Amino acid sequence: KQVIRTSANVAYLIASNCDSYPCTANTQTVRVYKGNQSGVPTSFARQDSAHEPVNTGCACAAVDGSDTIHIVWQERQAAANTKVRYNTYNTGTDLWGTAEDIDGNVGAAEDIGQGDQWVSVALDSSGKPHVAYIYHDGTRRHIAYRNRVSGTWTALTQIDDNTYTGNRKAWHPCIAFDSAGRRVF
After folding, report:
1. Taking the mean position of all CA atoms in its chain, how far away is CA 7?
2. What does pTM read for this prediction?
3. Which of 56, 135, 137, 182 has its CB 3.0 to 4.6 Å from that of 106, i.e. a possible disulfide?
4. Which residues of 111-146 are buried (b: 16+ CB within 10 A; e: fewer)?
5. pLDDT in tens for each of the 185 residues of the chain?
6. 63: buried, middle or exposed (CB in 10 Å: 19+, 13-18, 0-12)?
């Protein structure tokens, strides 16, 4: 559910498919579609479908100054072992890179509902990825933060204060940078 525009003004759409509700099929993938021309495209074509991440849920993307798209998604492995993963997409070659885990176990996949957004990504001024995502500790959802500034993913930092009660939960993490370069959640 992301629209990315490169420096050459070419639009890319990044989204996971949902062929039937409730969108839990292991055939669900993160897809990249490219506009057919710069400016306002008249059509989009699916790119590098052979290397799309599979068994996915929600996805989020951001583009850096080199027109590389950074994509983060939630991958369902089993009820108690959902992953948060990361990959890059090269708009010069229109190919996926090599996927890696950000977090190999964020808890129960069945706790995600239709429309929930479990992941968010923002790039700092150096083009390094920072992510906020939901993890489940067996009792409730929390918001986690990690970055890849030094080439590897940092340890998990819990962002929320763990005061959720009743039906209140972390639903849609979001991360951005303000004009002073500070992270905002």
Report:
1. 21
2. 0.90
3. 135
4. bbeeebbbbbbbbeeeeebbbbbbbbeeebbbbbbb
5. 789 999 999 999 998 887 766 666 677 889 999 999 999 999 999 999 999 998 888 899 999 999 999 999 988 765 556 889 999 999 999 999 999 999 988 876 555 555 567 899 999 999 999 999 988 877 777 889 999 999 999 999 988 766 666 666 666 788 989 888 888 88
6. buried
